[in-house]
Amino acid sequence: MGIAGKILIVDDEPEALENCSRILKRFRYDCLTEHDPIRAVDVIKRERPGLVLTDLCMPGLDGIGVLNAAKQLDPAVQVVLLTAHATVQTAVTSMRQGALDYILKPFTGAELEAVARRAFAGAGERCAGGSEPVGPTAGQEKGGAAPMLGGSRAIREVLDLVNKVARTDANVLIYGESGTGKELAAQTIHSRSLRAARPFVPVDCVSLPDTLLESELFGHERGAFTGAHTSKPGLFEMAQGGTVFLDEVSGMSQNLQSRLLRVLQERQVRRVGGIRFVDVDVRVIAASNQDLEQACRQGTFREDLYFRLNVIPIALPPLRARGGDIQLLAQEFLTRFARRFGPASGVVPELSPDVTDRLVRYPWPGNVRELQNVIERAVALAEGPVIRVEHLPERLHLVSADEPAQADAASFKDAKQQAVRLFERTFLVDLLKRHGGHMGRAAREAGVDRKTIERMVKRHGLRDKR
Ligand SMILES: Nc1ncnc2c1ncn2[C@@H]1O[C@H](COP(=O)(O)OP(=O)(O)OP(=O)(O)O)[C@@H](O)[C@H]1O
Ligand SMILES: [Mg+2]
């Protein structure tokens, strides 16, 4: 087997150089090392590595400097920054300047290998398919999907899986709470697959009554039902060669489930009222925020259909389990909305420290979509260059300072506890407001005794009657 690719590692600490290169050599990478960032630029010129792994903080020229120089010399080179926790924000912004990704120190060999593999997988695809960037965070996708952003471990695992799955033609089932990015993940898979040039057709399986959904999906012939004056192809036919995204698939009736199963098994559709079968070549990506396995056990979802759809399951983590991504996404949405309707100066407003603090502590039950809406509203409300707490919706005013910040991969138990705490606080504040701070009356309305209310007030530090 030949070498897997040429990598230049830049770090002012000899030990770090040694360590990285030992790991990568094991995976058959050809490793060059350089402790002087300025000399590293010459090495890039001379040796043309496919990947530059560079430390962020170095004397003389920092990692961003190396990134810029490398990209100037060779726009196709992939650059990954090695960063300590304190400078992670800089590393995150570097991705907008063209870095493929960053790795947080200390990292494992597996993380290093995974990022190298991704860098070179991208190079292969570039040769095959033109000049598009292919990293998970590398700008606009072919199919027009916005990039799926995130640096947390939880989302990187998803992005890795999305990339792998995109190369196959298997059906995919995406799970996740509302607003976690299920549709975006489906679009990303499509736009990185061989079907990218063909249509991506999303279908909401709960917004239409059964019979309408049936003719939407499978089409109908003229005269099939009253009002069917012409024949019409269904979405499966229209997606020919591409991907159909079945959103909220658990909402399908039993009748439609069996029709869908037949389409998946036979790769043919018959229009409503028709007799002819039409061959269809589509990939199906389905999404659900319900537990389909449980639905199968309860008999509301066909198990054979579930097996067909669930060839590759992808679980999107809730935003509260993605730690640092809250800030990363907030920053991204700030930039997007500022461009759209921010201050006329074109300056992207900043988040006050207090706002950032609340954003990272709030449990985000509506996930990325909720964060996006909150930032959109804040950009619209803030007239100056700084977004302050008063520009946030009230539920975020209630986040207290002793709420722990959302951490990577919070356990379900922790996340639930946090959500319950926040709910309790919101409920209590509303209740007391309605009763002018009168705890006895509040207790009566809530159907609990006064002691309970007093304890809750104390627990949430709500002594101020306002
Ligand atoms: N990782 C991400 N990076 C950037 N934007 C994201 C990310 N995840 C989600 N979004 C954005 O958040 C919004 C909600 O995502 P999406 O519609 O894909 O979620 P969903 O899980 O399908 O939600 P729902 O359950 O409500 O249908 C979209 O505008 C999407 O572009
Ligand atoms: Mg959706």
Write structural notes for this entry.
45% of the residues lie in helices and 14% in strands. It is of the alpha/beta class. It folds into 4 domains: 5-129, 3-Layer(aba) Sandwich (Rossmann fold), CATH 3.40.50.2300; 153-315, P-loop containing nucleotide triphosphate hydrolases (Rossmann fold), CATH 3.40.50; 319-397, Helicase, Ruva Protein, domain 3 (Orthogonal Bundle); 412-459. The strands form 5 sheets. Strands 2-1-3-4-5 form a 5-stranded parallel beta sheet, with helices on both faces. The protein has a 5-stranded parallel beta sheet with strand order 7-10-13-6-14. α2 packs parallel to α3 (63-73) and α13 crosses α15 (367-381). The longest helix is centred in the C-terminal third of the chain and has 23 residues, at 412-434. The protein is globular, with a radius of gyration of 26 Å.
Q: What is the overall silhouette?
A: globular
- Determine the oligomeric state from the structure: single chain
Structural class: alpha/beta
For the CA atoms, what is the radius of gyration? 26 Å
Low-confidence stretches: 124-143
Gap between N and C termini: 72 Å
Q: Strand sequence of the main sheet, in spatial order?
A: 2-1-3-4-5
- CATH class assignment of the largest domain: Alpha Beta
Fraction of residues in helix: 40-55%
| Distinct ligands | adenosine-5'-triphosphate, magnesium ion
Contiguous helical run count: 19
CATH topology of the largest domain: Rossmann fold
Number of extended strands: 16
Mean pLDDT across all residues, rounded? 85
Beta-strand percent range: 5-15%
